[in-house]
Amino acid sequence: MKKIVLSLGGSILVPSLESNRIAQYRDILREISAKYRIYVVVGGGGEARRYINAARSMDIDEATSDELGILITRINASLLMWALGEDAYPDIAESYTDAIKFGNSGKIVVMGGITPGQTTDAVAAVLAERLNADLLLNITAIDGIYSEDPKKNPAATKFSHLTPDGLIDIVSGGRMGAGANNIIDLVAAKMIQRSSLSMIVIDGTKPENIPDALIRGKFDGTVVSDDKKQLLPL
Ligand code: UTP
Predict the structure, then answer these.
(1) Cα 100–104–105 angle (5° rounding)?
(2) Which residues of the chain have pLDDT under 50?
């Protein structure tokens, strides 16, 4: 079975506890796991940011504040894992080796953050390297990678395809602007570059976009790959 690593932003899965998308993602993960081996790395979203801000306001150092963020990613991951019931491996992977071992069960593997100083995008990229995964799926709140932040410049153009070098250029070139919520973290972009990983960036506010892309080949986000040959359906 082909292996897919999903980086599922906390702000997509749990915009708030009251209006979360966990049931929708549970159904979609079940659908795609019939065809692919699935590893899901869940982010912390607004809740992680609130905890980190509270820690900073008490002068708790950055790395320790990151540990709080990691705990929140694991709480979000646990909610998804338990919602999946028997379809998920019944433990949150806390290392890459765990994730690889859990995946050998054939169940969906769910995890959150691993080490301070990065985001769950980097975790997903490292895991994709470790697994030699066929695809990294970056599930985010925007429908692709743009030349500039489309919220600031409505004339920004969306890339349907980028090479890993082009991705690095956008992420590190500051073209999105300092402090902007970059589409993917630089550590993750470097991993994609050094291992020529294939990634797609997809709008996860409409979860059905994911099976549409993976199973039906219907996709209008951004593909990051070394060449332009057709990637979807896998
Ligand atoms: P996220 O990956 O959720 O960051 O991790 P994010 O960019 O806010 O992503 P969204 O909003 O979910 O899409 C939340 C925080 O947890 C810590 C960092 O502080 C990060 O900002 N973290 C996460 C780590 O330190 N290491 C990790 O491996 C993962």
Answers:
(1) 125
(2) 176-180
Question: Which class is 3-224 in CATH?
Answer: alpha beta
Q: Which amino acid, 46? A: G
Q: Which residue has the tokens 């057709």?
A: 230
pTM of the model: 0.94
Which pLDDT score is estimated for 175?
52
Cα distance between residue 43 and residue 79, in whole Å: 12
Cβ of 4 closer than 6 Å to ligand 1, yes or no, is no
Q: SS3 breakdown of the chain: % helix, strand, coil, rounded to 5? A: 45, 15, 40
Alpha helices, DSSP H only, in the chain? 10-13, 22-33, 45-57, 62-84, 96-103, 120-131, 164-172, 186-195, 209-214
For residues 102 and 50, give the distance between their C-alpha atoms in angstroms, rounded to a whole number. Answer: 31
Ligand 1 lined by 11 (C-beta under 6 Å): yes
Residue whose CA is at the smallest distance from ligand 1 atom 24: 116
> Structural domain boundaries of the chain?
3-224
- Ligand 1 atom at minimum distance from 117 CA: 25
pLDDT at position 179 is: 37
